[in-house]
Design brief:
The chain is an alpha/beta fold and 230 residues long. It has a single domain, classed as Rossmann fold (3-Layer(aba) Sandwich). It has six helices and seven strands, in the order E-H-E-H-E-H-E-H-E-H-E-H-E. The mean pLDDT is 90.
Length: 230
């Protein structure tokens, strides 16, 4: 069953924006959430121009009250039912582990895993009200293998994988699907300023990831784990 009411975190840019625009062509209702209001307003305009309905919810994944408010705004827009939650927001950097200070470690865990967990928790009531609801967590190949200089990032993405796997088991009897998507390096602003020697022309595009997410959301059976590059 195709989703018609969708909440996307990290929806102001990159993969989140691309996902929103991919779904918008189906005439759905989308709530895009992120920290930057200017980016959100622009994406809302793009969604509406593509044929969808949209609202923006500015929020901070490090503030539980902010998460509550954003999900409440989305659920109110959806009139109590949510078909699809896409936990996409994340932060990234490359540093030797010995240089990762406590503030950085806390930020990575707050955004990459705790934010996804709390957003899902707040959305569960509305997901249960929908028929065949779906949670899609955007992880990374860093949730499947380790990379040098990414110990903290990998730790959060492995945690997201574990959360997804366990949540799937908890919710399967209720008909709520949980899927984890593992993109490879994707050419977004996440890599701006990162000290890596990368040829960004060889990276996947946000639109490539968005297409994978869109296809996963159309499946009647639950695809558990999807690599963007099989």
């Amino acid at each position: 069953m195709a989703p018609t009411r969708i909440l996307i975190t990290g929806g102001g840019r990159g993969i989140g924006r691309a996902i929103a625009l991919r779904f918008a062509t189906s005439g759905v209702k989308i709530c895009v959430a992120s920290r930057t209001s200017d980016e959100l307003d622009k994406v809302v305009e793009e969604i509406e121009a593509a044929g969808g309905e949209a609202i923006a919810a500015q929020f901070n994944l490090r503030d539980h009250g902010s998460i509550e408010a954003a999900v409440y705004r989305a659920v109110d827009f959806f009139e109590g039912q949510m078909d699809l939650l896409i936990n996409n927001a994340g932060v990234f950097d490359v540093k030797p582990f010995e240089e990762c200070d406590p503030g950085m470690v806390q930020k990575f865990f707050d955004v990459n895993i705790l934010g996804a967990m709390y957003t899902t928790q707040e959305a569960l009531v509305a997901l249960r009200e929908a028929d065949g609801a779906h949670v899609i967590n955007i992880s990374s190949t860093a949730g499947l293998q380790g990379y040098p200089g990414s110990s903290v990032y990998c730790a959060t993405k492995y945690a997201l994988r574990g959360f997804s796997d366990a949540l799937r088991e908890e919710l399967c009897d209720e008909g709520i699907r949980v899927t984890t998507v593992y993109p490879d390096a994707t050419d977004t602003t996440l890599f701006d300023g990162v000290d890596l020697d990368l040829d960004r022309s060889t990276m996947d595009s946000p639109e490539t990831v968005a297409e994978v997410v869109w296809k996963a959301a159309q499946e009647n059976e639950c695809p558990k784990d999807i690599k963007v590059r099989p």
